[in-house]
Design goal:
Helices cover 3% and strands 65% of the residues. It has one helix at residues 2-14; strands at 24-37, 42-50, 56-64, 70-81, 84-94, 99-110, 116-125, 130-141, 147-156, 159-170, 176-185, 190-203, 206-215, 218-229, 235-244, 249-260, 266-273, 285-293, 296-305, 308-317, 321-326, 329-341, 352-354, 361-365, 371-377, 383-388, 392-394, 401-409, 414-421. The chain is globular and about 65 Å long.
């Protein structure tokens, strides 16, 4: 069950919805990464290429022995149709033939609203030179386009059989309230509750996550996360708590504090542990981010020992090179400047939109005379409304839920974010 559970999250992040907006941008793109052991021997290398929209196009991975010889080489090809991922093909390199051979593939299907309907995974049989289905993810949505079911099936004996599934509940603002994980019991031929995450929203900037496990016909508390966000939807504070059954309360375990700069870039992240009465000071680990130029950033990770901060990791990345050194070896990244079509430019101006959630009016703080237009997109990326920017904007009658906004200045800079309509 754990394999299927983690695999779901890989698919979930990989198939996130793209929100198309006008413009062109040059961005930093990873083109190569190398992993070396502590004695400097290369053991893995990955090469990345992209299409003109900045989406993954080809990934080639090579694995080496201790003497620089390639022991295995694999490739992934990504194909898109109308900006939507169509399929991913996986190949193994045959050194004897100096050619790639089919390994497996995943094919993506969408409904009439361009929402992901299912993903089917196929394995290639070299004997019959045919494709055979192996796994399938199936998605169902409510009338607002929210995922309500995400089910995994496996193929056996010429038929699909259920393996596990995730079920979602939402509130009237289309925010997730319950994420339920169930596995399929072949004996009873029913789905069985296993884990659920309960989400609550005590404040506009706060989201709580309560994890429970189903045991002996009872839901038992396990842990809780308290997430506080900034006005720009970035973490401000995160607290992890563990349920203590003897006291019947949640006990603090770990806290993360985040500090940002004037352009909302992360400058510092500090991890603290609970001492029993307070959070230990100054913390147990911190990450310091220092932007040296528009395309260059330094990250220093330190741990607190014997009343002082000790730097144990150093991370530097720019358009050319990126290297992370630890006691286990070196992970080096190489970057290039990638022109990307249909992507927003990075905004150097800041506007604040409120209230959020909004109903009939939206107020814009900032230099509104420099702003040109406000555009709203729904969950599918479809533009639903646009208007010139003024300090007070009268909103049309829109369906309740979550929207993405794009605010563009007169010189082409853009700011984006999420707007809730109640």
């Amino acid at each position: 069950m754990k394999t299927a559970f983690y695999f779901f999250f890989i698919v979930y992040f990989f198939t996130g919805i793209l929100y198309p907006v006008a413009g062109q941008q040059t961005r930093v793109a990873l083109v190569k990464e190398q992993l070396k052991s502590s004695n400097g021997v290369l053991y893995q290398e990955n090469d990345f290429t992209y299409n003109r929209f900045g989406q993954d196009s080809v990934l080639v991975s090579r694995y080496f022995d201790g003497y620089g010889e390639t022991t295995m080489q694999v490739k992934q090809d990504y194909y898109f149709h109308d900006r939507l991922l169509d399929s991913v093909w996986y190949y193994d390199y045959n050194f004897a033939d100096s050619a790639y051979a089919y390994s497996s593939k995943s094919v993506y299907f969408y409904n009439a609203g361009s929402l992901l309907d299912s993903i089917i995974f196929f394995d290639y049989d070299t004997t019959s030179q045919s494709w055979f289905p192996s796994l399938k993810y199936f998605y169902a949505y409510d009338s607002d386009g929210n995922v309500i079911t995400d089910a995994l099936y496996y193929f056996s004996n010429a038929d699909w059989h259920p393996w596990d599934r995730f079920l979602y509940d939402y509130d009237n603002l289309n925010r997730v309230t319950v994420l339920l994980y169930q596995y399929y019991d072949t004996g009873s031929q029913n789905f069985v509750d296993f884990q659920r995450i309960m989400y609550s929203y005590p404040a506009l900037d706060t989201v709580n996550e309560m994890v429970q496990f189903y045991h002996d016909d009872v839901w038992e508390n396990d842990s809780r996360k308290i997430n506080v966000f900034t006005a720009f939807h970035k973490y401000s504070v995160r607290i992890v708590q563990k349920w203590d059954s003897s006291t019947g309360t949640y006990e603090n375990r770990v806290k993360f504090d985040y500090i940002y700069g004037n352009q909302h870039e992360l400058q510092r992240k500090t991890r603290s542990s609970w001492t029993g009465s307070d959070w230990n000071q100054p913390g147990i680990e911190k990450e310091l981010y220092h932007t040296t130029s528009i395309d260059s950033t330094q990250l220093i990770v330190s741990q607190y020992f014997d009343n002082e901060w000790e730097e144990n990791k150093y991370y530097y990345f720019s358009h050319q090179l990126d290297s992370l050194r630890t006691g286990y070896g070196t992970h080096t990244y190489y970057y290039t400047l990638l022109p990307v079509l249909n992507s927003p430019a990075i905004s150097t101006e800041t506007w604040h939109l409120y209230p959020n959630p909004a109903h009939d009016k939206l107020y814009v703080d900032g230099e509104t005379e420099k702003a040109r237009i406000l555009v709203l997109f729904d969950h599918t990326g479809k533009m639903v409304w646009k208007t010139p920017v003024t300090p007070i904007i009268n909103l049309p009658k829109l369906r309740k839920g979550s929207y993405w906004y794009l605010l563009e200045s007169r010189d082409g800079h853009r700011q984006s974010g999420r707007l809730l309509i109640k």
